[in-house]
Amino acid sequence: MDTNTRNYLTVTAGYWAFTVTDGAIRMLVVLYFHLLGYSPFEVAMLFLFYEVFGIVTNLVGGWLGARIGLNLTMHIGMGLQVVALSMLTVPDAWLTVAYVMLAQALSGIAKDLNKMSAKATVKTLVGAGGESRLFKYVAVLTGSKNALKGAGFFIGAALLELIGFRGALAVLAGMLAVVLIVTAILLPSGVGRMASKPKFTQVFSNTPAINWLSAARFFLFGARDVWFVVGLPVFLYSVLGWSFTQVGTFMAAWVIGYGMVQAAAPRLLHLGRSDNAVRRHPGGRTARRWALLLAIVPAGIAFALHQGWPPGEVLIVGLILFGVLFAINSAVHSYLILAYSDVEKVSMSVGFYYMANAGGRLAGTVLSGLVYQTQGIEGCLWWSAGFVLAAFLLSLRLPEVSEPKSAAAAA
Q: TM segments (predicted)?
């Protein structure tokens, strides 16, 4: 096994371990604080700082990674997650809303440091060119992350039932601490660190392709969360009469399936085409085509519900279609940000891009509750379609990626 492949596998394993804890802690907090008598609004507020600090972390984290190295920022993220998990093991009397919001803020910082570091590291391991291999590496890393986050939902709930809230947190913190030590030993130092120390103002990209892609990413993820975060689970529970277990299991299964499609995106994009006709990597044209297809799905679901079709069947089938198309869109975007980025500045480009991603999640989360309360699930779906259409229009400015050129030249 060559050094780059070994390092890629090490980064991926660390990312996997972190992602399991990220999914598990979300499920643990939701279930346990519901049992403590927190209202749904109070439970939702516990995650506010998680999203807000994700935006800040992505902005600062890329700059920090370029100065001190991506392996170090990844391990700082793991360490902060261990601290966040440990903070929640205190007695119930200490678990005020403010205290838990602080722990969730640390977890949000940790998650985005880890994600930015892992994905930017892939670019440094592949280097300029090699775009086909880069697409495959990114698709596997991103897809497996989402599948494992769904698995983390199950693991968190199972540990809560088997060994209780604090026991579950202790197991997760101990597991991640071990992974932190192992990856710190195996990974070389200084990965992704720029030779010259970049100024903070350099975190704002001056590459048009990265700016257009980041704007499209904002609306793409807002389109998912505007109906998925609040509107969908509340509708399944309050209107269709599903139990909490049924809602949680269905949504976790969706996340796992979505991740599997993401990992398989390179193969799915080439179905039915001969090798001679295949572009070995996607470009701006690919992003536009799949965004337009995705916009049709939430609009179609909303129209079907308005026509009085059975809501359960419509939502299940529609969510499956949405998940498949959204996963491909997300995989294409995750590849393009690395393809458009210069190898030396990749951490700052990825940080800026995921700042937009976090902003889209935050906007979608807030709108999901507001729109569902005022316009119902159909309103959430029409907003989703509008957000995807905005992502499509922004993607009109995205260029293609040429294999022989460096990432900087391609941008």
A: 12-35, 47-70, 82-106, 163-187, 226-244, 250-269, 290-309, 315-340, 352-375, 381-398
Which residue is it, tokens 């209202």? 39
DSSP state at residue 202? G
pTM: 0.72
Residues near 258 by beta carbon (within 8 Å), at least 6 away in sequence: 146, 147, 150, 323, 324, 326, 327
Cβ 362 vs Cβ 294: under 8 Å: no
Q: Which domains does the chain have, with CATH numbers?
A: 3-184+207-273+281-396 (1.20.1250.20)
* Count of CB atoms situated within 10 Å of the CB of 185: 8
Question: What tens digit of pLDDT does each residue of 240-265 get?
Answer: 888 766 777 787 788 888 888 888 88
The residues near 280 (Cβ < 8 Å, ≥ 6 apart) are 131, 132, 135, 403
Q: Rounded to whole angstroms, what are the CA distances from 50 to 148, 308, 375?
A: 19, 38, 27
